[in-house]
Amino acid sequence: MKTRTQNPTPDLQKIQMSCDICGVDSTSVVAMEECGELIQCVAKELRGKSDKTHMEEEIGDVLISVSNLIYIYDLDEEKIQRWIDFKQNRQMNRIRRLE
């Protein structure tokens, strides 16, 4: 696996404009649909029907959707980061116990 430095991030100005025009309901529904499309893409990967370009596209859509949700629901990114840190540390502890 490659070493990454950071996740790709959508353009905040475009996020704001899109969400302000589309509204909470539409933006939320699109986020749910995009997550479903990524789930299908991962399922195909596990069945041996690999399509890296399609997976990259769907991950891009989900990353945009997550940014949209953070914006429309006015979520605290520092709290989200703390949850990410907590969950990754918990996973590392589980892995260490398996060794």
Verbal overview:
The chain is mainly α. The chain has a single domain (12-98), classed as Helix Hairpins. It contains three helices and no strands. The radius of gyration is 16 Å and the shape is globular. The model has no long low-confidence stretch (mean pLDDT 95).
Essential attributes:
Helix Hairpins; 99 residues; globular; mainly alpha
Secondary structure elements and pairings:
Blueprint: H1 12-46, H2 52-72, H3 77-98
Helix pairs in contact: 1-2
* N-to-C order of helices and strands: HHH
CATH architecture label: Orthogonal Bundle
Tally of helical segments:
3
- Please identify the top-level CATH class: Mainly Alpha
User: How many domains make up the 3D coordinates?
Assistant: 1
Bin the strand percentage: under 5%
Radius of gyration: 16 Å
Count of individual beta strands:
0
Outline the biggest β-sheet: none
Shape: globular
Runs with pLDDT <50, length 5+?
A: none
Helix content: over 70%
Q: Roughly how many Å apart are the termini?
A: 20 Å
Mean of residue pLDDT values: 95
Structural class: mainly alpha
What is the CATH third-level topology name?
Helix Hairpins
Summarize the structure.
The mean pLDDT is 95.
